[in-house]
Amino acid sequence: MTSITLPIIKKQASIGTLVLLALAALGAFAALFRWVDGFDQVSSLSDSRPWGIWISFDLLVGVPISAGAFILAATVHIFHIEKYRPILRPALLTGFLGYLMVILALMVDLGQPQRIWHMLIYWNLHSPLFEVGMCVMTYTAVLLIEFSPPILEKLGWTGLLGFLKKISIPVVILGVTLSTMHQSSLGSLFLIVPLKMYPLWYTPLLPLIFLVSAISVGFGMVIFECALSHRFLGGHIRKDIFEGLSRGMLIALSVLLLIKLADLIAAGEMGLVFDGSFQSFMFLLENLIGIILPIAILLTPSLRTNTAWIFRAALLTVLGLILYRLNIGLVGMAGEPYFPQLLEVAVTVGVFSAGILAFGFAMKNLPLEEE
Amino acid sequence: MENEHTQKLSRREFLKLIGAAASGLLMAAATANPSFASSGEELPPEEHWAMLYDATKCSGCRECEVACKSYNKLSEEDVDDLSGNTFTLIKLYQSEDGSQKSFRKFQCMHCVEPACAASCPVSALHKIENGPVIYDSYKCIGCRYCMQACAFGAPRYDWSLAYPLIRKCEMCYHRENGPACAEICPKQALMFGKRGDLIEIAKARIAVNAGKYFEDRVYGEFEGGGTSILILSAVPFEAIGLPALDPKPLPDRTRWALNIVPAIFFGVGGAMAAVYRSSKKSDKEAEEKKA
Q1: Chain B: nearest CA to A192, how far in angstroms?
Q2: Of A57, A273, B166, B170, which has the fewest Cβ atoms less than 10 A away?
Q3: For the stretch B9-40, what's the b/e string if a residue is b when 16 or more beta carbons lie within 10 angstroms of its beta carbon?
Q4: How confident is the model at residue A90, as a pLDDT?
Q5: How far apart are CA B27 and CA B37, in angstroms?
């Protein structure tokens, strides 16, 4: 075990909490405004831009950054790599909160949020969104079961705890399966818009690229969380865990790079990458920041064992994924120019602030370190 | 006897007459309203309700817009595009030098394989057996995936509302004489009928007026798997805002990904179970060795 200092500015927790509370309150105000007064008042959404940042960020980023939960659950419970057990519960917590945040944001985005349950009774097996919706609903329930042990321990409900332990393996397997399905189906959502999406991003491989990018950012987020829990709980970060996670991230990123390259070459779109258009710039930025730079860091012998650099590579991976998903949802989609309104951004920021607050609260109050 | 016989005959003849009249009436009704030909079963696309819009005949009088607003009880508004209150719209396209111009009628194209219906997660949009793509507003959750999926920008929203619903042309599927817009058209630029018949009519016009119509073809016969709104134009289709869709229906692009979902479910699930069993076994062996 090696103790390390992370590049996070130390500050008074109470000030941070107050800022987050204020942001969450502003988000709640914006959401209320939308529910009472209508979309026009808070958003730049229009008929030519029916999906804005609530979909492109809250859904398309919110789901993959919660992927660490299924990756670690599989690593510890299925592959029996016990080394990662100490960080499993924080990862499950982030995953569960992440999905709650996605659902919360959807309640603002949907035109008829009170009918969100309609998917349970009016099925459409031809719709990728139906698959995503069903998987997200079921997987959120799975995450609640996976994450409940620390809560039950705290409450002292040993009976239920024992029952959940008995069914834990099938539940974990179901969680991995559901995650594979909806992480990829999120990409399938866009298969139906071949003419609306810029060719650099449109490919039949969208579901595969979405899945692999979700896995890479899942590792990235767990590295990020390790750093956070280190900060909240103090103590040491186990360097072997950090390095193991970074190797997983490196593999996922390399596979992602190969798929994207092969796809560009097969489609004969290499010319578009360097044609100097705004789209080509955004495409290059997304891949430089999110794939090439982190791979380069993790392949450099002097950096790849340095915990601070691993942390930076993870941050770049997360940033790159955010860029990729915003490019898919906004930059690469045809439509009139779209720039979100202040209150529209406030909803997104507010939802994330509430999520971070809940994470901090749970970290302090629940027994998240298991033996 | 003879009398009786004649009487019988006449009665039979009378019945025949009634029958002929009835079937004649039915025929007439079927031409006026193809839905009467439907027995509730799904009809082949050539039997679907359809409209042929010949842009070269359109004078831009916009009577169709007025008739649509009146039948669908839509409020007047000054817009230059389809909207939550405007289901059809005539636009004038002009080339930069002014040498070419053409009208174009915008509305839902009532695709043979509609992307909106395939994408709707709650089946609120669906194609009824005789062709029109209709919307069950009570199911809609307002996700707007249909707006994203539609290549023609047909589904629209009223963004001023807090709980909007999708709004679009439903081809007046409840209306006895078919779409109000087609009925009112004074220039017969818009014809209502069965899709198969209208394609024939369009091809006949092309044959008679060689070189008049763009690429000597009718838009919507094959585009995106075919549409029920068929369009004849003298100017290039792209010039009047018609997307260059290939014949592959849009839902086909998603279908393969959905078809492998069961395989993913059982494949990933089975693989995870297998890994679990083998890793548990090797764990046990390792423990036994230790002991």
Answers
A1: 6
A2: A273
A3: eeeeeeeeeeeeeeeeeeeeeeeebbbeebee
A4: 86
A5: 9
Q: Does B85 touch chain A (CB under 8 A)?
A: no
Mark out the alpha helices in B61-160 (DSSP H runs): 63-71, 115-119, 145-149
Q: Which residue has the tokens 């070269």?
A: B56
Please state, in angstroms and rounded to a whole number, the distance separating the CA atoms of residues A87 and A68: 10
**Which tokens hold the place of A112?**
């008829």
**Distance (Å, whole) CA A347 – CA A32:** 10
| DSSP-assigned letter for residue B43 | P
* Domain locations along chain B: 32-248, 256-283
Dihedral angle, C-alpha B190, B195, B201, B203, nearest 10 °:
110
CA distance B13 to chain A (A): 53
Nearest residue in chain B measured CA to CA from A123? B122
With tokens 């609530």, the residue in question is A54
Band (A16; pLDDT cuts 50, 70, 90): confident
DSSP states along B195-262: HHHHHHHHHHHHHHTTTTSGGG--BTSSGGG-BSEEEE-SS-GGGGT-----SS-HHHHHHHHHHTHH
Q: Which residue has the tokens 């955004």?
A: A282
pLDDT grade, residue A13 (50/70/90)? low
Q: Residue A366, exposed/middle/buried by CB under 10 A (0-12, 13-18, 19+)?
A: middle
Reported ipTM: the value is: 0.91
How confident is the prediction for chain A on average, in pLDDT?
A: 91
pLDDT at residue number A235: 63
CA distances from B173 to A108, B34, B135, B165 (A): 33, 10, 11, 19
| Cα-based distances in Å from A2 to A238, A244, B274, B276 | 6, 14, 36, 31
| Residues on chain A touching B127 (C-beta within 8 angstroms) | none
Q: If you ran DSSP here, which 8-state letter would residue A233 be given?
A: H
In this model, does residue A115 exceed pLDDT 80? yes
Measured CA angle at B58 (ends B55, B59), to 5 deg = 140
Q: Side chain identity at B34, as an amino acid letter?
A: P
> Rounded CA gap, B222 and B219, in Å?
7
Minimal CA separation from A103 to chain B, in Å: 13
Return the CATH architecture of domain B32-248. 2-Layer Sandwich (3.30)
pLDDT of residue B289 exceeding 80, the answer is no
Residue A351: closest CA among A18, A30, A12, A16 = A30
Question: Looking at residue B26, what is its pLDDT?
Answer: 41
B141 vs A118: CB contact, 8 Å cut-off? yes
Q: How far apart are CA B87 and CA A278, in angstroms?
A: 34
Question: Which chain A residues are within 8 Å of B148, Cβ to Cβ?
Answer: 50-51, 192-193, 196
The answer to whether A291 and A260 are in contact (CB under 8 A) is: yes
**In chain A, which residue's Cα lies nearest the Cα of B270?**
A173
Residue scoring higher pLDDT (A47 or B78): A47
Q: What is the pLDDT of residue A367?
A: 80
pLDDT of residue B9: 43
pLDDT at B11: 47
Q: What is the mean pLDDT of residues A264-292?
A: 95
Strand partners, B104: B91
**SS3 call for B167:** strand
